[in-house]
Amino acid sequence: MRVANPDANTVSLQIALRRFGPEKGSGPEVWLSGASHVGDSNYFATLQKHLDAQPLVLFEGVGGKSKKKMRFDPEEETSIQHTMASALGLVFQLSAIDYDRPQFRNSDLTIGQLQQLLAGGTNQPGESGGSAPASREFQELLQVMDGSSMLGTLLHVGLKFIGSSPKLQAMTKVVLIETLGQMTGDMSQIKGMPPEIQRLLSVIIQERNKVVLDDLRKELHTVRPPKAVSIFYGAGHMADLEKRLRSELRYRPRGEVWLTAMSVDLRESGLSAAEMEAMRGLIRWQMEALKSE
């Protein structure tokens, strides 16, 4: 992820589609197709074209009913991500992307597997011990995301209030863009995170990445592997996925395409240069504090 300024009045969040090939010899190309879960409709239309052109797409889908072909139904409108997208004048990934494609394959853990990992289960090879606090954090996160908790209800109300004001909407999008643009590397390794949050992020990112890499490895070793495979996961997974792709499968970058997920026109929104600098300074200070603790 990166922040881009295509002109003096525009700030954008861009996310890479990065292409990899074997370090030696021949073999299928692998795309790490990072995604923003909310974005402009044009962004998702371009992303859909990229994915439709791939012979095989391994996508994230916690709670998916099948590891094979499936129709991934959009979440209910009570989800916090759906509300956030609507409030910011954006669209939600699960509403914008059509997963009903023959080459799309769910490659992820189930909710039950995640819960067992966080509680200290041993159903996944190579996992580290879990913790009850991390498991509780996960349950609370699920309740926030589906709007069933008090915090989730409050967030829904707050987001709808933001959506009622064009300037608040623009300010929130800028904060989102600047914050995501400064998140580099594996988020589960940020030093300033509480231990239970680190554990939660570690499972959500690293353990799920192990699953998709295992599925990719199987595809690469079939008698007739696909010419290309796209791993379609949230952008927060990409740093760890790239590290694994390089070290475990000896793949190397061969090119990349940057897609603009969302943008804010500062002039139209009425945000001044002073307001922008104040927001950027606060976000930069918070991110540096998290990384240095």
Q: How does this model look, in words?
A:
- The protein is of the alpha/beta class and 293 residues long.
- It has one domain (2-292).
- The protein is 47% helix and 20% strand.
- Helix 5 packs across helix 8 (195-220), helix 7 runs parallel beside helix 11 and helix 8 packs across helix 9 (238-249).
- The chain is globular, with a radius of gyration of 19 Å.
- Mean pLDDT is 83; it is low at 65-76 and 122-131.
Brief account:
By secondary structure, this protein is α/β, with parallel strands linked by helices.
Structural category is alpha/beta
Give the low-pLDDT segments. Answer: 65-76, 122-131
Radius of gyration: 19 Å
What portion of the residues fall into strands of 2 or more residues?
A: 15-25%
Element-level helix/strand string: EEEEHEHEHEHHHHHEHEHH
Number of strands: 9
- The oligomerization state is single chain
Mean pLDDT: 83
Number of domains: 1
Which key phrases capture this entry?
293 residues, alpha/beta, seven-stranded mixed beta sheet, 47% helix
Break the fold down into its secondary structure elements and pairings.
Elements: E1 2-7, E2 10-22, E3 29-35, E4 38-39, H1 41-52, E5 56-59, H2 80-87, E6 91-92, H3 93-96, E7 104-106, H4 111-118, H5 132-145, H6 150-163, H7 166-181, H8 195-220, E8 228-234, H9 238-249, E9 251-265, H10 266-269, H11 273-292
Parallel strand pairs: 3-8, 5-7, 5-8
Antiparallel strand pairs: 1-2, 2-3, 2-9, 4-6
Helix pairs in contact: 2-6, 4-5, 5-8, 7-11, 8-9
